[in-house]
Structures are given as C-alpha cells and as structure tokens.
Amino acid sequence: MSEQIKKFLYLNRRAPYGTIYAWESLEVVLIGAAFDQKVSLAFVDDGVFEIVKGQDTSESGFKNFSPTYAALGDYDVNQLFVEKESLEERGLSIDDLMHLTWEDEDEDWAEKDSIRVVSRSELSEIMADQDVVFSF
Amino acid sequence: MSELHTVNKSPFEKNSFDSCMGHVLDGSAVLLYEDGVYAAIKGTAMEGKVTSAQGVKFYVLGPDIKARGIDAARLTDGIEIVDYAGFVDLATEHDKVVAWV
C-alpha cells in the first residue's frame, strides 16, 4: 500500500462538559496524531468554549481535560482554527482563550501560536481543502 | 404559585433557555446550571433576555461557571451565584421546580 498523507480536520462544535463529545474528540485527535497525517482542528459554535482559559473543575467533579490542548503542539498538531463569528456570538475574544503554542524545529524551535482566528467564510475554504472531516 | 425554572442546556445549541423565558412568570426564578450557564454571559444575545425579564430572579451554579472558565465578572448584571446547597434551598423555597432539560 502506498504511503499517502491526507489532510484531516476535526470539527469541534460542542461545549466541554455538558456532553462527552469534546473529550472524545481530543482522544481521537491524539490517536490520529500518531499516524503521521496532516491534522488540524476547527472550533465552531459552542466548540469555542472548549479552549476557554481558566477552566477549574475542582468544585464540580468533572475531569478538567483542558490542559491537554496545550500538549497538542508536541504531537505536531499545531493548526487550530477558531471561528471569529462563533466567538463574538458568545461574548468572547481570542484573549479569553488559552495561549496554545508549538515549537518549529525548522526554525530553531521557535515558539509559535497554534490558534488562528478565521472568519466563517475562511473556514469554509479550509474545510473544502480537506480530505477528511471528522465531526464532534 | 412561585416556580423555580432550571435550564441545563447551552442557549446557543438548544432552545431550552428561550422556551423557559417564554413561559416564566413574574415572581418566579430561573437557575442556570451545567451548559445552561452560558446563557449568563454578558454581551451575548441572551443578556437582553435576562435583563428584560420583569420580576424574575436569575441564579447560576457557581461550580459550573468555574469549570467552564467563566469569571463572575463576565455574568450579566443581577445574576446571583449559588452553590449546590443554594440549589437545594431554591428548590425548597419555591412551590415547584420546572426543568427545561
């Protein structure tokens, strides 16, 4: 079988704790990252709540899986697209999100931002450019 | 008869909050918990729905806003934060609970 690298986009549309979708997505992303494919994530609708900073589940009994997003860079998952319109509808801006970075080995391990805020129309183009889109 | 209405779904994903607001009466209370707490964020389309509800008291469950990284300063004015014991108190203080699940 020939080695073929495909473009995978994980489309995240759910808030983090009300359902299991967000956590399941993260699990699948980490598994998928082991297969040397070109992986990116999109956060749309309530999915933008997944990467809000300052999550503290100590009083509610949920597992706080938000620190895991910071590890994605180490798995070469460094393209996180966040839809601008979804943020604005929810009273949020990029300043409300975790600062997620990755280190570029081609540029002497320079630290770079993983999150890119894109418009709805830009995200449509990004989706059209993918081989596979997984929805959560 | 005073009622405690509870909403636990995101107002951006389901119409539970809107339906609740369409049925809540003067003198009743609305408690937002789990993903329902997203209706409490200032600067969204929900803010006006909360502030324009006359004679309705709004509460939000503290541990659930904390889990979601929502600071108390981000809540729409007039919404009171309660803990789990406060949830129980509200349930007992009202004649009945209407859950918009």
Written account of the structure:
The complex is a heterodimer of chains A (136) and B (101). Chain A is of the alpha/beta class and 136 residues long. Chain A has a single domain, classed as DsrEFH-like (Hypothetical Protein Ychn, Chain: A). Helices cover 21% and strands 24% of the residues of chain A. Chain A has a 5-stranded parallel β-sheet with strand order 6-3-2-1-7. A two-stranded antiparallel sheet of chain A has the order 4-5. In chain A, a hairpin with a 5-residue loop joins strand 4 and strand 5 (110-113). The longest helix of chain A has 13 residues, at 21-33. Chain A is globular. Chain A starts with 6 loop residues before the first strand and ends with a strand. Chain B is α/β, with parallel strands linked by helices and 101 residues long. Chain B has one domain (3-100): DsrEFH-like (Hypothetical Protein Ychn, Chain: A, 3-Layer(aba) Sandwich), CATH 3.40.1260. Chain B is 31% helix and 22% strand. Chain B is built from 4 helices and 5 strands. In chain B, strands 4-3-2-1-5 form a 5-stranded parallel β-sheet. In chain B, helix 2 (45-51) links the parallel strand 2 (29-32) and strand 3 (57-61). Chain B is globular and about 35 Å long. Chain B starts with a strand and ends with a strand. Chains A and B meet through loops of A and helix 3 of B.
Number of domains as seen in the coordinates of chain B: 1
Largest sheet of chain B: 5 strands, parallel
CATH architecture of chain A: 3-Layer(aba) Sandwich
**By helix and strand content of chain A, what is the structural category?**
alpha/beta
The helix-strand sequence of chain B is EHEHEHEHE
Q: Tell me the helix content of chain A.
A: 10-25%
CATH class of chain B: Alpha Beta
Integer-rounded radius of gyration of chain B: 12 Å
Number of strands of chain A: 7
CATH homologous superfamily annotation of chain A: DsrEFH-like
User: Largest chain-chain contact?
Assistant: A-B, 24 and 25 residues
Mean pLDDT of chain A: 95
Q: Please name the CATH topology of chain B.
A: Hypothetical Protein Ychn, Chain: A
What is the name of the CATH topology of chain A?
Hypothetical Protein Ychn, Chain: A
Annotated CATH homologous superfamily of chain B: DsrEFH-like
What CATH architecture label of chain B applies? 3-Layer(aba) Sandwich
Beta-strand portion of chain B reads 15-25%
Tally of separate helices of chain A: 3
Given the helix and strand composition of chain B, which structural class is it?
Answer: alpha/beta
Low-confidence spans of chain B: none
